[in-house]
Amino acid sequence: MPATTFKIESFTFNPFSENTYVLYDDTKECVVIDPGCSNKTEQQELQDFIKTNELKVVRLLNTHCHIDHVLGNKFVADTYGVPLEIHEDDLPVLRSVPTYSVAYGFPQYQEILPEKFLKEGEDVAFGNTRLQVLLTPGHAPGHVVFYHAESQNVVGGDVLFQRSIGRTDLPGGDYDTLIQSIKTKLFILPDEVTVHPGHGPSTTIGEEKASNPFLR
């Protein structure tokens, strides 16, 4: 069964403690999601893992385009020759990053724009793996999550956290939209599904249904 070979590796990068993910299977093809590596040391950590495991990076994906999730986009794209893929609704969010990157302490940020757009209903395929793309706006207008049904894992970006939810006070954010996204896109998934968020520890759909104070 392909499910037994599907693996997720996480890295915590940059001053925002952002979670970067590498997903791969027994074909050794992999995708990098939300590379937040902000300096040479973090870039090397990501590169070392990919090299040690003899992985081939075939796709570069962003759940959304706030600065902490895109700092390593250009590094990954240049190093592995892969185009950036985001949801089109988050393009304004990505384009705004250079306007505030210096103020946030990242004068070295280098912009890279997407060559492909992710769409809900169109799976992301690599190796023997298919990820479902679910559009989950609210934290950012073009926020998506990536769901692997066979292994019951979802890479959730900044939508749902352990006992919390994504902030909605940034441009393009909307609280009611976020709650609706969680209830209609995530809470319909099986309780056993593990959520790998953009910050903090993983959780499960069932745990958050039962205990998340924002979703009572």
TrEMBL record:
What domain of life does the native source organism fall in? Bacteria
Names of the cofactor(s)? Zn(2+)
The UniProt entry, under Pfam families, shows: Lactamase_B
Q: Which SMART domains match?
A: Lactamase_B (SM00849)
Is Transport set as a keyword in this record? no
TM regions (residue ranges)? none
**Tagged with keyword Transcription:** no
Residue ranges occupied by any Metallo-beta-lactamase domain in the UniProt entry: 17-199
What InterPro entries does this protein map onto?
MBL_Glyoxalase_II (IPR051453), Metallo-B-lactamas (IPR001279), RibonucZ/Hydroxyglut_hydro (IPR036866)
Any one GO MF annotation of this record: metal ion binding
UniProt keyword annotations, A-Z: Hydrolase, Metal-binding, Zinc
Q: Which Gene3D superfamilies match?
A: Ribonuclease Z/Hydroxyacylglutathione hydrolase-like
Q: What is this protein called?
A: Metallo-beta-lactamase
Q: What is the protein's species of origin?
A: Rufibacter radiotolerans
